[in-house]
Amino acid sequence: MNYQSKSLFTLLFLPLMFLLFVQSCSMKKEGKLEIEAAILYKMGGAQPIARNEFYLLGESADEILKESNLKPKQIAKFEEMAKNVGISNTSKNYNLLMLHSANQLSKLESDYLNSVRILMEKHAVKTLKTDLQGKAQVSDLEPKTYYLYGYSETRGGGAIWNLPIDIKAGQNSITIDQSNAFNAN
User: Fold this and answer.
1) Distance (Å, rounded) from C-alpha 65 to C-alpha 122?
2) CA 147 → CA 17, 18, 32, 135, 144, distances in Å?
3) CB–CB of 148/11 below 8 Å?
4) Contacts with 112 (C-beta within 8 Å, 6 or more apart), sequence order
5) What is the mean pLDDT of each run of 10 residues along the chain (185 residues)?
6) Residue ranges of domains in the chain
7) pLDDT of 83
8) pTM of the predicted structure, to 2 decimals
9) 179 vs 156: CA distance, rounded Å
10) How far apart are CA 152 and CA 181, in angstroms?
11) Residue 124 burial (CB < 10 Å; 0-12/13-18/19+)?
12) In angstroms, rounded to a whole number, what is the distance separating the alpha carbons of residues 140 and 125?
């Protein structure tokens, strides 16, 4: 190879190889999640869950609550109610049931509810805030299973979500309403 052909090779081939390398690095398989959240009422139709935060968690909110040892002030009342209906502290979703009860007593349990919100914020992989139409989206997600946690007040009380979501590379979407809530009133 003579000098001219080496410099032509350097000018054309090396930049092309660099561009291909950069492109392959940027083609990571990432997922996007779009949510649409609403409460469906028999009278009045769908009401978007607007300006509400949902947390994408790496593990179930029930597990996070269990590990935190956070307890509502009215724990004795809750434990008595749970015992009367055959629910023990080893039952699946026991901590979410306790959270739901605290939401029903929100004026008495505001410190506990605020502590739960802060706990979920700390454990959140991503936070989604819905717009006025109840829609939100997030990108740059590693494809795997997450839990979507959220709480919203409703006309009859409140709704709690703790949904496992399998994020795949590309676009993913879910509709959130009382039918897939952990508990809704």
Assistant:
1) 12
2) 40, 39, 14, 18, 10
3) no
4) 70, 71, 72, 73, 102
5) 55 62 63 96 88 96 88 74 73 76 69 88 97 97 96 84 95 95 76
6) 33-184
7) 76
8) 0.74
9) 15
10) 10
11) middle
12) 11
